[in-house]
Each structure stands twice: as C-alpha cells, then as structure tokens.
Design a protein that fits this description.
The chain is of the alpha/beta class. It has helices spanning about 5-15, 20-25, 30-45, 60-85, 100-120, 130-140, 185, 200-210, 225-235, 245-250, 280-300, and strands at about 50-55, 55-60, 95-100, 120-130, 145-150, 155-170, 180, 190-195, 215-220, 240, 255-260, 265-275. Strand 1 (about 50-55) and strand 2 (about 55-60) form a beta hairpin. Helix 2 (about 20-25) crosses helix 3 and helix 5 (about 100-120) crosses helix 11 (about 280-300).
Amino acid sequence: MKMTLRQLEVFEAIARSGQVSKAAQWLGMTGPAASMALAELEKQLSVRLFERVGNRLRLNAQGAQLLPLATELLAQASKVEALFHASGAVLAGELKVGASTTIGNFLLAKAAVAFGQQHLDALVDVSIHNTSAVIEQVANFEVELGFIEGHCVDRRLDVSAWHQDHLCVFCHPAHPLAGQQVSVDDVRQQYWVLREEGSGTREHFVNAAHALGLHPEARFCFSTADAIKLAVKQGAGLGVLSELALERELARRELALIDVTGLSITRPFFLIRHKSRQPTALANAFVQFCQNFFNIQEKPAG
C-alpha cells in the first residue's frame, strides 16, 4: 500500500466540504486531479469512502473510520515540517474554529479579523453554533478548536478555562423592576425570554437560578441574542444574556438591567480540543493571539 499524504489531504478536504470542486479549490488543485487522488486512495484501500447525496458527497461508515486517523496523520506531518523548517514563524493555511454564539459574535469575529490582518497567509474560518453543536464539531474532527460557554463532559476532549464573562438580567426600560436591586422572590412570578436548549448561556443561568430555588419559566426561546433583545423590548418578559451582547442597547437606554440579589452569573468560557489531535502551529498561535488580544482589550485606560 502506497497511499500519500496528498491523497489523505484530498480525502479530508472532501469530507469537510462535501464537494470535490470545493476541496480542490482549498488545496490549490484542479477538480480532475482531486477526483483522481480520491479514486486512487479508494483503490488502494479497496473500499468506497463516500456516498453521493444529491450533488454532495457524504462519508459512509468506512470514511467515518478513516477521517480521524487521516486528520491525526496530517497533523503529525505538519508538526514535523514546522519542526525542521526555519521559516516556521510564517503562519499560513486555514484554521477551522467552532464557537458558541456569544463568543463567536462578540469575541472571535473580531479576533479572527485582527489575526488575519497580522498573518496575511492565514485564514481563520469561524463557524458559530450553540455549545452542544460546537462540542460535536470538535469531537467529529470538523474543527480543530472549539470555544464554548457551557460545560463539556465529553471524555474525548481536553477542556481548559479560557476567558470570563458576566450574564445580565435585563428588561424593557418601562418595566417596574427596571434599574432596581431586587430579591429572588421579586422575579419568581416573572416570565423569561431565554436561549434555546443546548445553549451555554441558558445552562449557566438556569443552574445559578436553581441554586437559589428559582425555577424560571421560559415563555419564549430563541437561538440568537438579537431575537431575545427584540422580544424583551416588546415586553415579552425578562431576558438573560452576556453583557457583551447588551452594551449597545444599554448605552442607548433601549433596555435596562435588573440586579437580582444573590444571583451570581459570572461564568468561564472554555477552549476545547480533541485529545487524539495534535495541535497545529496555526492553532497554537491563534489561541495565544486571542489571549493577548483580549487582555489588551480589557486593560483600563490610563
């Protein structure tokens, strides 16, 4: 058997993109060359690796078995190249990152642009989902790094604290509790507008509320911060979101905060990686860049 790293690169790219043409574009190849590389790999392994569904290719059982092995082997090859090339300081290539909603929209979008401006040959592709979906992406080798708001108990993954955030209870400015410090009993009968199940924001808030004997009733659930803010502006109930998502509306006095005594909703953000995947130089550089970038952002003026 004489499979090549190039064949495995083509296989991995097709697995991620679902299309030979897009995989070829990512790798700087022609479509026929990518098709031939896949055909040769399947011939050497004596198996089919994909099933065609419409105009896309989807991994079959054999392909799903090969993908994590191919990804690990390619990562090891990249590590060898970086180790023995003096130009290792030049970062290039594509880094796939998964981020939960708050982190993706309010932190990583900004960091990815700044990183790309500093490293012109590098591309950080950030896909934004809720926490449970990002965990699945990392576990299935769809992304190399995951940045999440909720907890992760998947034993295949390494989890480390990465950043901190604060959740805020907020309401319409004309609400009777707007701008007040209140007790848990004061909000016990209120309706709530919350993120969907699987959201780290919702998980953290509900756990903190339950610890105080508060069981918030979700009258409406939405998967985006904008939808929740709009519903609260319409008087649908009290909302809970990261302070990162509320900065503009609070400054414009379109929304107001409520300080619920004893409700501590400072939470960590987590970085997750697959234990079986060797980190690339690009991934390590991006993590370090984010840490420095947000430390700089958080320093008080003067």
